[in-house]
Amino acid sequence: MENFKERVIIAIDYNNLKSVKDILERLKGEAYFYKIGSELFTSCGSQSIGLIKDYGCKIFLDLKFHDIPNTVYNAVKSAGELGVDIINVHASGGIEMMKSAKRGGIEAAKKTGKSIDIIAVTVLTNLAREDIKDIFYYFEDRVNSDNLNKNHADILRNLVLHLAKLAKISGLDGVVCSGYESLEIKKNLGDDFKTITPGIRLKRGNYAAEVQRSLKAGNIKNIEDGMRIDDQKRIMTPSMAFNSKADYIVVGREVTASNDPLDALKAIYNDIERFAKN
Ligand code: C5P
After folding, report:
1. Most buried residue among 124, 194, 237, 269 by CB atoms closer than 10 A?
2. Domain count, the chain
3. Which atom of ligand 1 is nearest to the CA of 254?
4. β-pairing, 58-65 with 174-176?
5. Quick check: pTM over 0.85?
């Protein structure tokens, strides 16, 4: 796969600039895209953006805005003016909110002179079917659990696809989703509509090969069940995510919590080189 290193976004969930500087140094020349989330931005603000830019890398500002349209417009405009490349909002904020987010991104781009992708979060990858059921259908479930259990098989997939459609209608550039939904989103909404997939995990030994075999046999569910790590649930290997047509993968603790982050990143690259198709 060509230029894949530019499609691997490293999530640096730290609360201090020293750790940011340390990881930037360790991964210098190997990582090109970083994600700043709410922990780092709340702790260190725009200084973290400046630091990453000093290393010539791109930035995904993952603050997942969800508010009234006017507030989101101003938040996205301000974030865009900091010179980041990707900004996200929650799709569940609705069409008007997402349209405002896009407008804020366009205004900011006029000022910075570079385009900004505005992306919608569909369903967080730490949530699985049972969680969605609890959040949205708790009461009904108590009324008639047998009936609902049957219908819940596709709830998560349908909800992700529905939210992705709302994002597309709103003029956004793509969505954050798990690798399990990426392919279907591309099929329904087109290859130009970007998918960014977090929840990336490697398994040691020949696990990646097993994953490929299981995928061919259509056994995705078993893999998912066997790969619950940390607080993530809908997880995949890097190559599986790219084979599901993800434009970008987001890799956090697999690299940042490793004793040797550079070695861990190289293991990610190795999995992509060996198993990603295009
Ligand atoms: O450490 P890990 O690889 O699980 O990190 C995933 C990162 O991606 C975290 O920064 C998390 O906030 C983010 N994220 C996510 N699921 C989403 C959107 C963002 O896990 N749907």
Report:
1. 237
2. 1
3. 3
4. unpaired
5. yes
